[in-house]
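Dear colleagues,

I hope this message finds you well. In preparation for our joint manuscript, I am sending the IS1182 family transposase (Blautia ammoniilytica) sequence together with its predicted structure, so that both groups work from identical material. I would be grateful if you could confirm receipt.
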Amino acid sequence: MLKDHSQLQLSLSPYQGLYDAIIPEDHLLRRIKENIDFSFVNPMLRKQYCENFGRPAKEPEMMFKLLFLKKLYDLSDEALISSAQTDMAYKFFLNLEPEAKMIDSSLLTKFRKTRITEDILEELLKETIQQALDKNLIKSGTIIVDSTHTLASVRAKSPTQILRDMSKQLRKEIYKTAFELSEQFPEKPSLEAGLDEEIAYTKELLRILEEGIESCGNEKIQKLSREMKELLEDERLKEIRSKEDKDARFGHKTATSTFYGYKNHLAMTEERLIAGISVTDGGAPDGQELPKLIEKAKENGIKVTEVIGDMAYVSDDNLEVCGKEITLIARTNTAVAAAANGNLEEGFCFNKDAGMLQCPAGELSTRVEKRTAKNGNTYLRYIFSKVKCRKCSQRENCRVGKSKAKERSYSITQASEKNLERLKFEESEYFQERMKIRHRIEEKNGELKEAHGLRKADSRGLFAMHLQMYFTAFTANVKRIVRLEELAME
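The corresponding structure tokens are as follows:
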């Protein structure tokens, strides 16, 4: 149950004067409290509470501010509550009395899981942009786009190893608490066994033990059995690299280095305020998220007239989305230019971080060769790993995977006459000048990672990554609004 403000009884503490004596005028939390209106939180979250039943809930605004402090200072839930109990600046920001007792840290987890939805996260980001617009702090229609990766909170394993570990855990628990069932174990596959063999063994193990597991009454064994069945039934089994985080995927930082986790795609205004966010697994191509970022920036109140990004964002689809109303400031890569001519099949894209072509399964080409055809045309030939293609689950639907040639390759034509006008624009003085501010979003990405903990995921799963990214962006926007207001007053 959520109380109305009229029901809240705020007593005047005899220690209230401590705040004025201890917290300096230029303290960040005092400046934020004076410049940012958090009153939007209670109305926004009211629909998440029962109006008439249940125990009185902690005020959403205070819970929300605690999550803000968590991101502002990059703290764990336990460290946050511990600091909030003794730090007067925290209590001042939270509108608490100096002697007030803090909540248990477990309530933060409950608040995140039961009160926050994706719709609320979108409203949260929109609120910061609206407050900036109301203060006339956003003056241009330019957005700068880029992505930054976040490492998963778990270690990646192969699907084979995941199944092997789960069946091992099940057998171990049976040996401990239901030994009679161990006599039915089928023969284990060898350590060199592949995924198909491991899947067959796991299915056979569960089939043989099904009746015994149901009748043994051991909840741990039954839970393990259910988890194994769910994993075997998952269509994404061959792509999953962790049973704890089934949404994370491998992505490429460079041609030779990868990461396991998620990508956060950002649209930032010229004033360094994040106006649009899209969160995907680590293998998602950057360019495909541009239409969504533009739409979200518009929904949040930005009248988008210009988009600045890197070469990943130049494609026929994106140029069509921008049309004549939005100028796309991004350099064309030869592979992307070929895609603009319709030469790339669906699922293939150019990975700008690695400088290589990426197949539908997310694998990078190992090298590229530039060749000249007999008719005088030049083309790029991207070579893929024959071993990986042979093992790929998507090979039957991929022209590279089905190839019987000695090398698995994909050839694309370089930029044609159709793209010369675009290439000419990229050489213009205006284009060169506007590209000079693209570095601002890279600096913002660095701030989000180094100051606010975006380098590694707080929890597991795609929604948890949404939650972390949006609260991190909200925190960065609040800091930036305060700074912009101070600059305007100077």
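For the figure legend, we might mention the following. The first helix runs from residue 18 to 22. The mean pLDDT is 88.

With kind regards,
E.M.
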